[in-house]
């Protein structure tokens, strides 16, 4: 057994953990072997290091998190399985990835399955709060989530119900009061084992690091994005850095929403200040309202469709997303998810 003191002494010297050491440490943490003091010290040492966690530390931690997750049985047929969970940590716009998950399912029935992983937020308007406010049963059992995937092509995976081993780290994380490596490991641990992902994050350095992490973890296809103004979504407020990971290879490009026919808008126009605002925005977008909120959802849905190989490119994905909204299919998908998750 790797003693926590050995790990902490190494981190204090500025030497990051190897993948093997990271796996050993996180296995012991999630098994309840470390004290709150040891856990807090390790998390703080990694978080305070210039550059934060390394790819080795992320890969090791994610492998352990995946072993400890309460899984969802993904259907064997029905489409390519994808998640749109991002890391958070950026200025909070409205719930783009959550709405985009619904639109993606509506745009590609039979071609794409969306296991949307998400949680609550310190703002009180995270993906779990929004889904619950829209009527979705966020406490649905894994069996019900599988049923939603099979029937509707989408389910919501509330993180707190799928990571019971995280209870061992919860007191230390709460006491620290700032984001830690666990905030990055969660989005790498989809309960349905989705091999495809659209992941947004808040900095160019972290986006590159997560791209290499997903490649090492064997992602079938993933797209990691950040904007030049620091948003953790594909955005219309600035240009976007887009890393595409496919079978271990990484390619990078810049995507400008304006070149795809979408409008430019300032960040302030995208803010949902309260949960009620977030619900209103979601319902307006799904009802077909035009404007910057819709354009953000179209762009991020396109990213998910490209990651799922259900769209030839971003332009094709935007077209499919617009059709899903304007035909009423996206709104019907939400209604069906509300009904099925509560059945």
Please write out the topology.
Elements: H1 4-12, H2 19-30, H3 36-48, H4 55-68, E1 80-83, H5 96-107, E2 112-118, H6 127-133, H7 142-152, E3 154-158, H8 159-162, H9 170-176, H10 182-185, E4 196-200, H11 204-216, E5 221-227, E6 240-246, E7 249-255, H12 275-286, H13 292-307, H14 314-326, H15 329-341
Parallel strand pairs: 1-2, 1-4, 2-3, 4-5
Antiparallel strand pairs: 5-6, 6-7
Helix pairs in contact: 1-3, 2-4, 3-9, 4-11, 5-13, 5-14, 5-15, 7-15, 13-14
The CATH level-2 architecture of the largest domain is identified as: 3-Layer(aba) Sandwich
Number of helices: 15
Shape: globular
Q: Could you report the average pLDDT, rounded to the nearest whole number? A: 95
